[in-house]
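A reminder from the course coordinator: this example appears on the midterm review sheet, so study it carefully.

Given structure:
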C-alpha cells in the first residue's frame, strides 16, 4: 500500500511527513509468522540476491486466507482487506522498512540517513531539502538495512571495508558508511533517478537548456554523418551532468553503436544498439577488479561508434582521448567548475592527458546547480566552449553559448563555430545551409514543446522519424501548426 506524504511549510526547512503503516496486534503476529515461514521461499537462486515478488505475494495471500479463515469459520474475509493486507506485508518483507515509501516517491532525488536518533532528510525535486518524520532509534536496525542492500548487490560492508558504493535493482545509487569511517554511527545516502528519464524537451521546459542550444548540439552531435562532435560535460556534484548527458544522447543517430562505461550504472540511454558496462571492485582476495581503464580499453575492441564514459577521473582519460584521436566519437562527464579548469584537470595528474590530444574534444559543456534563498535549486547549462586549437602550449577556447543570470536565458555569444565550419566542409554544404538545418531542428523541438510531447518514447519516436525522412517530418509540422 502506498503511503501519503504531507508537505507543510516551515520557516527554515519544510517537513515531509510519512503516514506510517500501522498493524493491529493480530496483524503483527501474522507478519512475524510470515517472515519466519515464507521469506526463504522468496529468494530465487542465481548470482544476485533477488526476490520473486509474484510468487511471494501469492504465498502471503494463501497464508493469510488460511490463518484468518481458521479464526473466522464463516470465512467472512473481504477480498479487498486480504489484498491490501497482503500488499502491505509484501512491502514490509521485501521493501526497505521505514524508508520504503521514500524510495517509491518519484519526486525525491535523494534520501539521506545521517545517524541514530536523527531525522531522515530528503531532497525533493520541487521543494528542495526536507526533513521527514522518520528516525532510526536502533543502530542494529539501520545496520541490518545497509547489510541487506549490500547483499542485494553482491557487496560487503564491515570494519575492513566500511564504505559501500553501488546501485539497487531499480537503478538508485547507494553510498553507506559504518564506523570507524562515520564516527557517529552508520549513514546511508540514496540517489534516486526518475522512472521516466528526463528528455531534452523536459530540460528545455525547465530552462536547463535553450531550444537554440539544443538544436545546435543536435546538429553537432549528429554531425550530418560526416563529423560527430565529441563533448565533455563538466560541473559540480549533483549539477545534473548525467541527466544532461542522457538527454543529449537521444540526438545520436539510431544507426550508431554505443558503448557506455560507468562506475555505477546511471545512464538510461534510449538507444537500441547499446552495450552497458560497469566497473567491478576487487573481491575479498583482492582479485577480479575491473577498472574504468580496463573497460575503455576493452570497448575499443567492440567496434563502437560512440564511447560514453560516465565519469572521467584517472588513467581512463588517456585511453579515451587516444580513442577520440583515432577516429572514435565520445562523451564523458567530469567534476569541474569552469571550461578552463576542465582543461587543467584533464592535463594534470591523475589524468595527465597530453595537451595535443585535448583538441580531440569539440565542446566543453558546463553545467551548474544554482541555489536560491528558499533552499530550492535549479540547474542551468552555464557555458558551452569550443576548443579551437593551441597557441604556445595553451589550449584556446571559443565561447559559443553563455547563461545570463539576470534574464535567466542562455545566449548565443559566438561569432563563428569551428565545428560547424568543419561539418560544412566535409558535407559539401555551405554555412548558410548548415544554419538552415539548425533552424529546421529547432522547429522540430518547438513542435514537441508546443504539443506537450516530452516522454522518452514519444521524443525518440519523432527524432527517429526525422533521421529517416526529415522533410516528411517538417511538412507534417507545417500542416499541424
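Designed residues:
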Amino acid at each position: 500500500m502506498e503511503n501519503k506524504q504531507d508537505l507543510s511549510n516551515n520557516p527554515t526547512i519544510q517537513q515531509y511527513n510519512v503516514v506510517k503503516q500501522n498493524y493491529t496486534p493480530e496483524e503483527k503476529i501474522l507478519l512475524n509468522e510470515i517472515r519466519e515461514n515464507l521469506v526463504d521461499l522468496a529468494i530465487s537462486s542465481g548470482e544476485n540476491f533477488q526476490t520473486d515478488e509474484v510468487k511471494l505475494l501469492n504465498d502471503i495471500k494463501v497464508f493469510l486466507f488460511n490463518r484468518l479463515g481458521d479464526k473466522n469459520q464463516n470465512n467472512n474475509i473481504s477480498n479487498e482487506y486480504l489484498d491490501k493486507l497482503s500488499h502491505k506485508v509484501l512491502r514490509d518483507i521485501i521493501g526497505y522498512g521505514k524508508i520504503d515509501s521514500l524510495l517509491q516517491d518519484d519526486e525525491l532525488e535523494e534520501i539521506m540517513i545521517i545517524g541514530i536518533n536523527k531525522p531522515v532528510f530528503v531532497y525533493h525535486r520541487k521543494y528542495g531539502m526536507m526533513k521527514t518524520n522518520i528516525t532510526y532509534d536502533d543502530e542494529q536496525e539501520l545496520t541490518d538495512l545497509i547489510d541487506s542492500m549490500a547483499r542485494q548487490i553482491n557487496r560487503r560492508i564491515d570494519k575492513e571495508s566500511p564504505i559501500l558504493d553501488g546501485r539497487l535493482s531499480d537503478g538508485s545509487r547507494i553510498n553507506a558508511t559504518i564506523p570507524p569511517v562515520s564516527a557517529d554511527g552508520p549513514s546511508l545516502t540514496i540517489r534516486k533517478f526518475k522512472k521516466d528519464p528526463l528528455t531534452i524537451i523536459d530540460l528545455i521546459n525547465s530552462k536547463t537548456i535553450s531550444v537554440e542550444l539544443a538544436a545546435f548540439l543536435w546538429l553537432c552531435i549528429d554531425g550530418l554523418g560526416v563529423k560527430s562532435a565529441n563533448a565533455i560535460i563538466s560541473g559540480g556534484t549533483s549539477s545534473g551532468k548525467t541527466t544532461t548527458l542522457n538527454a543529449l544522447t537521444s540526438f545520436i543517430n539510431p544507426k550508431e553503436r554505443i558503448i557506455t562505461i560507468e562506475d555505477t550504472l546511471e545512464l538510461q540511454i534510449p538507444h537500441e544498439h547499446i552495450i552497458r558496462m560497469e566497473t567491478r571492485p576487487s573481491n575479498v582476495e583482492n582479485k577480479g577488479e575491473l577498472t574504468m581503464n580496463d573497460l575503455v580499453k576493452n570497448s575499443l575492441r567492440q567496434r563502437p561508434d560512440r564511447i560514453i564514459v560516465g565519469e572521467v577521473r584517472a588513467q581512463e582519460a588517456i585511453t579515451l582521448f587516444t580513442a577520440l584521436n583515432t577516429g572514435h566519437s565520445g562523451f564523458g562527464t567530469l567534476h569541474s567548475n569552469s571550461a578552463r579548469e576542465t582543461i587543467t584537470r584533464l592535463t594534470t595528474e591523475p589524468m595527465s592527458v597530453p595537451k595535443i590530444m585535448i583538441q580531440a574534444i569539440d565542446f566543453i559543456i558546463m553545467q551548474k546547480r544554482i541555489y536560491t534563498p528558499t533552499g530550492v535549486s535549479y540547474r542551468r547549462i552555464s557555458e558551452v566552449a569550443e576548443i579551437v586549437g593551441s597557441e604556445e602550449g595553451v589550449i584556446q577556447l571559443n565561447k559559443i553559448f553563455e547563461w545570463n543570470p539576470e534574464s535567466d536565458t542562455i545566449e548565443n555569444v559566438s561569432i563563428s563555430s569551428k565545428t560547424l565550419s568543419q561539418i560544412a566542409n566535409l558535407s559539401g554544404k555551405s554555412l548558410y545551409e548548415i544554419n538552415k538545418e539548425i533552424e529546421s531542428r529547432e522547429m522540430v523541438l518547438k513542435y514537441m514543446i508546443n504539443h506537450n510531447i516530452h516522454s522518452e518514447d514519444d521524443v525518440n519516436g519523432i527524432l527517429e522519424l526525422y533521421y529517416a525522412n526529415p522533410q516528411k517530418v517538417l511538412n507534417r509540422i507545417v500542416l499541424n501548426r
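The two ends are 44 Å apart (CA to CA). Residues 1-5, 41-49 have pLDDT under 50 and may be disordered.
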